[in-house]
Each structure stands twice: as C-alpha cells, then as structure tokens.
Task: structure prediction
Amino acid sequence: MELNLHAIDTPPRAASTVVMLRDGAAGLEVLLMKRHGLSDVLGGAYVFPGGKLDAADAELDAARHLDQAAPQLHASLHDAELDDAHAAGLYVAAVREAFEEAGVLLAETFEGGEPDLARASALLKAGTPFNAMLAELGLRLQTRRLAPWSRWITPRVPSVMNKRFDTRFFAAVVPPEQVATHDDYETTESTWLSPRAALQRYWDREIEMAPPQIMTLAQLARHDNAGQAVAAARTRRPPLIQPESLEDGGTRVVCYPGDACHPVRERAMAGPLRLRWNNKRFEPVDGFDALFL
Result:
C-alpha cells in the first residue's frame, strides 16, 4: 500500500462490509481475505468481505425477500438521515457481498430450509443478478444474522486509497454448514485467524492491512467467542468513526474520536487513539501492545 497525498472532494460512496466470525479451537476467529493485487481499492491488503452499495440492493422486495421489515433495519442502524429502502439496501449489500466474495449465503428458503448453494453460485456465475437469483430460488435473506458493528467514513484525505466510502460494518457468525473461501477474482487468498494472531501477522509484516481492519480486529480481540462479539454489538449503537488525517513532525497521523486533535472528544472505541505512518504502514503510536489496552 502507498500513502495517499491528495484530498478528495467527491462524497463518500455507500458500502457494506461483513466481519465474518466463527469459534475455533482457541476461541474467536475472523475471516480475512487478500484483495487482488491489481485492485484499485486496497490491492494486496487483507480485508473483510464487502463492497459498494448497488442501486438494485435498495430495490429488493423487502416484504418477500427479507426476514425483517425495512423500518426495523433502519432503526438498527441509528441513522435518521437514511430512508427505509436505503437502510435495507445496506443489509442486502452486506449479504450479497458475503456471497459473491466468500461464498457464504445468509439466506433460507421461504419454507425455512437451507439454500441450494451450488445452484445459487451457478446462477450468479452465469450472470443472473443477485435479486433475480433470490426470486428464482425462493430465498429470504437472514438479516437477523447481521449485527451492526460500526460505521466508517473515509476522511477527505484518505490514508491509503484514492476513493472515499461510507461503510457499514456488520458482524455475523458464519453458518456451521457453510464454508467461506475466496473467489479467486476479487480476492486471491483467505484465512481464519484469531484477532490477535491477525494483528501479530500484520505487526510482523507478513500481511498488509488498512486502519479500519486494524482497529476492528483490536475491538474483536476483546471478545472470547463469536457469540459474545455479536451479542455485544447488539447492545450498543454502532459507533460512527470519521478519522482525521493530519501531519505531525512531517509524518501522517490518523486520529480517532477521543484524541486531542479530533473534533469529537468522546472516545468511540477501545484501543489506540492514533495510528502513525511508519515504513509504509500505519502503526499504533505507542507500539503493538497499545492495540489491546
């Protein structure tokens, strides 16, 4: 990744990301996927499955294909500026991206049965739009599996991208009967790691990650298992995180709510309040252990 030096004046693009969780032998594990090296968004970095909101996501027939009404989904995001259709669309985008990028389909048949993953995948690969695939297979999306985790808005001077996004992070436990894997198109590798192990690999320069992934893993490291993490998300309003980019001693620093240089004085999340650009990556100012304080 390279440090971005240019301000972007276009509005951030709405997007959804799914932080996929499971319980491994030693506790909580999270799915990380390596983006294709030629991608114009975080190429080569390890990320959570996700992508931008498509117009069709907000057009899905909620009464037929969602397990919760659009107003309920709107209320769960705690954002008065959204309308019901847009809020529901963010959930649809999360489920769609999880299936397209990781092969995990959070859905059930109208009768409550398991989805035919092979057929759903074949339809998508043949060019059938996601909404049309749901209609053909008679599927209802399980939005109840998604817990709003956080909302990240890229600053006007992005850290390592030349685009801005307004991204809703959702946490979800992967159904035990499904296997998550990379699509060999947008993502080229995938791995399940404990949050601390993932951060250790980043610290040891074995993998690259951007600040939202680093900070999200730092939050997840405070939970022992997947159910605990999702339950915790359901008890709070998803924090709004609008990082501030600044120069400190000739070095780029990204600060978060609660930092003395951030306009929001109340802390939004546990962990370090700033990351500093050092040797072509962002690091906690006070070192690795600061991620877990």
